[in-house]
Amino acid sequence: MSAPRSVRASFTFWLIAVAAGVFETVVAASQQTEDAYPQVAIRFAIFAGAVFLAVSVLRGRPWARIAIAVLLSCVGLLSLVYEPIQWLLAGNSATQWYSDADVATRAFAGSRLLHVVAVVAATALMFAPQANAYFRHSRALRTA
């Protein structure tokens, strides 16, 4: 059984999320010193793990769907939105930020927004009814 449309679309959104993360990492690293290299290496290891999990989800591996949901849809998403939410709750103005931001900062923020939307979409699609049937079928084939 090939992956249904919802799982294929989820896979595409996971790749979009990874691409956005890579872009954010490059932008952030370009504005820092050499001390950023260990952090960049860690992020690229996470991106490689995300692609591995997304491919495993596409292949119908139920464990991968749970792993990516916990690691990236919960923990990863929280890491993406925590700081901006705290900043807004501290009384800062998004419109003032936008008028003060340079091109690199705006590009980073746009990419971060795309990243968040892609993770939410990928997660929702990965648990759509067709996806659930696909993973049940896949599990049944492996246990048979």
Secondary structure blueprint with pairings:
Blueprint: H1 5-30, H2 37-58, H3 62-89, H4 94-100, H5 103-126, H6 129-143
Helix pairs in contact: 1-2, 1-5, 2-3, 3-5
Radius of gyration: 17 Å
Report the span from N to C terminus.
Answer: 15 Å
Q: Strand-and-helix sequence, N→C?
A: HHHHHH
Strand content: under 5%
Largest sheet: none
Helix content: over 70%
Shape: elongated
* Number of β-strand runs: 0
Structural class assignment = mainly alpha
Mean pLDDT: 93
Low-pLDDT segments: none
Count the DSSP helices.
Answer: 6
What is the total domain count? 1
Question: What would you say this structure looks like, in words?
Answer:
With 144 residues, the chain is mainly alpha-helical. The protein has one domain. Helix content is 85%, strand content 0%. It is built from 6 helices and no strands. The longest helix is centred in the middle third of the chain and has 28 residues.
Question: What's this model, at a glance?
Answer:
With 144 residues, the protein is mostly helical.
Annotation keywords:
single chain; 144 residues; mainly alpha; 6 helices; 85% helix
